[in-house]
From TrEMBL, chains A, B:
SMART domains, A to Z: HTH_LACI (SM00354)
Domain HTH lacI-type stretches: 18-72
SUPFAM superfamilies associated with the record: lambda repressor-like DNA-binding domains (SSF47413), Periplasmic binding protein-like I (SSF53822)
Pfam family, one: LacI
Matches recorded under InterPro entries: HTH_LacI (IPR000843), Lambda_DNA-bd_dom_sf (IPR010982), Peripla_BP_I (IPR028082), SBP_2_dom (IPR025997)
Protein name: Transcriptional regulator, LacI family
DNA sequence: CTGAAAGCGCTTACAG
DNA sequence: CTGAAAGCGCTTACAG
């Protein structure tokens, strides 16, 4: 059956590919009834349902979603809720979302982004409560895990709106899916790179964290400690210092930590401002450049990677995050299965040599 | 304009979104003429063309590709031509292709894979010559770069079939696009990891290559030498030994190299059978485990990563390769632009800690 | 509970 | 060179 050559029977494979019309004919019912069965709509006798299902099985029907959406004049409307920090990671994520917005009209999809103060659980919950099932077909949310948010998500699901958590999981809510990386593994990856790059040196490691409550931060730190404790016992990770979401504050706390530990051989930035850390390193005038491992590839971290200040960045592709969220949300709407392997977000390791050439 | 709340004007944003009918009305022509202009079909006076274009601009029309394909009853038919080696990388690539085949019917796409003996340029060229533009809408090809293949590609393009090169580029042909990584950068990445993991040790590095002619091999070795020469002068990469595409032969040549250089501190596997290399390491009974950097993540290399025999794998995601080839081919058919950032295949670094959990 | 007919946004013969 | 009409595979009021 080589349809690609001139000699073979032209368009041989085109035969069949059954449509709703074929089902209607075989089942001996009308198009409308086929549609009702196909879409689980009420008001069909079970005998009739069975007849239709038999025809479907017999013909091996697969529905043409594009045609269905066209007829339905369906546009998917998704809302992305993000925290309102100003950091470059979020900017990058927004760019990823902007890209899907650009290609969205092609797919009959509208996407809106809402930024909500991350510390204000009440406002966040209120925003979610405002979402109208008649207007919104799905929600992607990046937020700290709090009881209020958990309940708001449950409520949305009850109203029939699919929800995916983004970047930071809401494992105790009944969100449909988590789009993001395994942060424990990400921390282990950071620990291993730091351990290997240290090449047998003994010493302390300064750990800078955004805040100690955020789930992804906790998981990363945990993974880091696991692997360092097990494989690099000559390294001594210090208690985390908190940089908040503020470069200047991050610089201050990091500088203080470096001054208290001038023999530190490395710094693990669990999610803090890498700019602040770089400035602290410069200000500390250490005898030897410390190894620096950071999370999330941004313009800043890329520049510092190029400059040789940062040694490696553990990251996740924001474009993938956005597209994956979109695909999963669409799948949930269509009630089609998600392809697991495609939605598995990878933990990327970036060093100077494999920096992506373009943004 | 918050359409997501109950309070706002329902479906406010739905207004407009102009269609061909609107264009026809505004331009004062028929649907058929609009269609002709939209698709650059011949037989329209330039005055008319202008009228239509003005209407398009005025209305801000964007075409609905899904509806167009439905009407056109268009199914894309793409052929993937791959070498007939038995290796796991190709198996993985085929799995990536299989995945797009599964989801293909949804997108009115048919994909066929042809395996051609890689050494047989003549048969390869003959296979390409057999491709009928009436039957095939696009070609993705992974093959060594030879004049015969180059000409065959040019010929296909002349017959109007878009061509993308896959994994190994055909830079001197006029293929539409290359789907794959920058292999010089991949080699630099391997060199840097080996250099850093060596942690200041002096010593020789055994380099095992599939064959010395293949373009990707040459580029990787080149990048490796660049970075080691510049940044790790205490390392001494040895001349490449050729493993062919054969594990047993790879084992023999690697073992010989290790016996001749028992003080080698590392091995760079540029694209050879990592199984063969692992067996050679075991057989050589070295005083100290050498650092081993390999390319392409497969079941074998993943197992060796877990076992601590391989230290890092430089790889490219075969799922991305397949999907990217598909998207680019479809874009070429539709004459729509490719989104560069989305089609940029990343150089992935995999260590034990960030191994993907599932295949 | 079921069906006939119109329509989604586009394309395609067929006339003229 | 241009247009009227039918059709792609599905869904949606509207009748009955």
């Amino acid at each position: 059956m080589k349809w690609w050559t001139k000699l073979s029977n032209p368009r041989l494979t085109d035969v069949a590919k059954p449509t709703v019309n074929d089902i209607a004919r075989v089942a001996g019912v009308s198009l409308a009834t086929v549609d009702r069965v196909l879409n689980d709509r009420p008001g069909v006798r079970s005998v009739t349902i069975n007849k239709v299902h038999e025809a479907i099985d017999k013909l091996g029907y697969v529905r043409d979603t594009a045609a269905a959406n066209l007829a339905r004049q369906k546009t998917y409307r998704f809302v992305f809720v993000l925290p309102d920090w100003k950091g470059q990671f979020l900017a990058s994520l927004e760019r990823g979302i902007a890209e899907i917005i650009v290609s969205a009209p092609q797919n009959r999809t509208e996407v809106r982004t809402i930024r909500v103060p991350n510390h204000d659980h009440t406002q966040l919950a209120a925003t979610l409560a405002e979402l109208d099932p008649a207007q919104v077909d799905g929600l992607a949310i990046m937020a700290k895990e709090t009881p209020l948010v958990r309940d708001a998500i449950a409520d949305l699901r009850k109203r029939g709106i699919p929800v995916v958590s983004l970047v930071s999981d809401q494992p105790n809510s009944d969100r449909d899916h988590f789009v993001g990386i395994d942060n424990v593994a990400a921390g282990r990856t950071a620990g291993t790179l730091l351990g290997r790059f240290a090449g047998g040196q003994k010493g302390k490691v300064v750990v800078v964290i955004t805040n100690k409550q955020s789930r992804d931060m906790i998981e990363r730190r945990h993974g880091f400690d696991q692997v360092v404790g097990a494989n690099y016992p000559h390294l001594e990770p210090l208690p985390s210092v908190e940089g908040q979401e503020d470069p200047a504050h991050t610089e201050r706390v990091t500088l203080r930590a470096l001054q208290q530990n001038p023999d530190a051989i490395g710094i693990y930035s669990v999610g803090a401002s890498v700019q602040g850390i770089a400035r602290a390193i410069a200000a500390a005038r250490l005898p030897k450049r410390p190894i620096l491992i950071d999370h999330e590839l941004t313009e800043n971290s890329a520049a510092l990677l190029r400059a040789g200040v940062v040694d490696a960045v553990i990251t996740q592709n924001t474009g993938h995050l956005a597209r994956s969220a979109l695909r999963v949300l669409r799948a949930k709407c269509d009630k089609t299965p998600v392809i697991k392997s495609q939605e598995n977000i990878r933990i990327d390791i970036v060093i100077r040599e494999n920096l992506p050439s373009m943004k």
